[in-house]
Amino acid sequence: MAIQHPYLMFLGDSPDQLAAKVAQGVAHWRPEWCLGQLRLEGCKADLKLPDMTLADAREKGVKTVVVGVANRGGVIGASWVEVLEQALDMGMDIAAGLHQKVADVPRLAEAAARNGRKLFDVRHPTRSFDVASGVKRSGKRLLAVGTDCSVGKMYASLAIEQEMRKRGIKADFRATGQTGIFIAGDGVSVDAVVSDFISGATEWLTPENAPDHWDIVEGQGSLFHASFAGVSLGLLHGSQPDALVLCHEPTRAHMRGLPGYKLPSIEEAIDLNLRMARLTNPDVRFVGVAINTSGLGEDEALGYLQKVEAETGLPTTDPVRQGVARIVDNLA
Amino acid sequence: MAIQHPYLMFLGDSPDQLAAKVAQGVAHWRPEWCLGQLRLEGCKADLKLPDMTLADAREKGVKTVVVGVANRGGVIGASWVEVLEQALDMGMDIAAGLHQKVADVPRLAEAAARNGRKLFDVRHPTRSFDVASGVKRSGKRLLAVGTDCSVGKMYASLAIEQEMRKRGIKADFRATGQTGIFIAGDGVSVDAVVSDFISGATEWLTPENAPDHWDIVEGQGSLFHASFAGVSLGLLHGSQPDALVLCHEPTRAHMRGLPGYKLPSIEEAIDLNLRMARLTNPDVRFVGVAINTSGLGEDEALGYLQKVEAETGLPTTDPVRQGVARIVDNLA
């Protein structure tokens, strides 16, 4: 798909900061791409980027307006359509991650057509995929897996890509969800792929590469999540990972969205992910554990990280507090 | 969806018997629904059903013409369209399991609309599903799982449903693939569901029921198949099986479509399926092993079945040669 940057981040009339979570992730990881923000009346979110009109954005060279906001039902606000249509008329593309497709809004589809502009609906795969071949391919791949959903897999992956690139290692983050796709400018929303093709889409996303090149693959869900484990397994098999990083959030009372379902232990998550991953890469190994300790105080966090490191024998770190250098050390 | 029977089996211009495999499965399991076959010039397949014209079929009370044939590319033959249009004009519905939708053929879509008839494209889900809740529900469920794809899971499931009904046990076969859907008259082609909803679609397909009612769920793929394991896992979690039956074909050199991938041992397949299934039903157990021994001679087959039974401690049978009575005995 290849979304062109730089971006103008469209926040619409977000009722709070959380509604702009996707945009915030993009601005955090690609500050050099995010030239400004456009907020409509009543918008309560703020990315601390310069506020811009569409005319400002065009003048600064913005290529794509990114709709990085969530709202109830994932629909495109009526008040947004006029602004987005103007953006198309001014020669910018639109990229959105809502359930409702911008391409399904007639005014926007027509405006894109008459201006020769592109509409990217990143939650909706626009191509078809082959069934996975399972054939071993060159290049190295690291996959972030989780004890649960939303435990920091994307953050850990991006931190690892950043650290590797800083060291001159060839590495590309491969996005499998909407925020990641805006950050990478490309990718596949794997949970929206027809289930026969989960692994095939992952093989397509992480093709053969130079022997010393690493794909850092964004994980999704968890093998222990009763709603989404199929997606996680397809991603695990399709990415044929050489290296795994386990991501975990230690304060959850139960699996996300599933009262009554307890989180697995870290040992159990390591063991099961290795067992399943060996099907397509018998040499797979864990290289680290990334803990989201945002729910713990500093001392408690450090104590917890040390405990997990002692139990697993793996570099264990909070990517936000401490970075991921020790995990990347362990890749060498 | 609820496809109305009785059926007229449309074989088109099938180049050989194999091309009519789906129709053959339906005729085998629902002989009382399949009143006749309609073959076009050059058809080399034969279900040994009475050959009928559309007029004959209408007179006999046929409700649905079932397109149970495969052809290269899964498209609707040009020579078929005229016949299928006539069937709609004569008041019959059409059900097809091709990749190309009959609903996408303008002449057929129009004929269905003007006659108030239905078009069933059983490979393509026509409804949306919720994400799986993982909540325990009443009723019992049995799922057929496999060491590989195409090892007899549908056959074993249907044989179990038949045997249970014969004994007066409440049992319903729940179809997850195209042939199964024609046989059940309803179902979900789970491999065509968007991957986020595999388990949710399975929960929908096997809803809560009377405590003594059994859903016999058709399995798909295998946890050991590098292309499709995600589908199998979603189905396993969503069906929350109380009972599992392992299906196996002992003469395969490698996993179907995956040279270089060996089949798992029966012990390994039992162990991994139990481990994964326990997430949504900790009390799950295997109740039998169904072996497709069609590739073995009689003596060899019996010897093999005895060996597996001794190794697993489970009733082990070839559903075709011996039926599944001993597996059903073990359900009680």
From TrEMBL, chains A, B:
This is Putative NAD-dependent epimerase/dehydratase family protein. SUPFAM superfamilies: P-loop containing nucleoside triphosphate hydrolases. Residues 131-328 form the D-glutamate N-acetyltransferase-like C-terminal domain. Residues 40-125 form the D-glutamate N-acetyltransferase-like N-terminal domain.
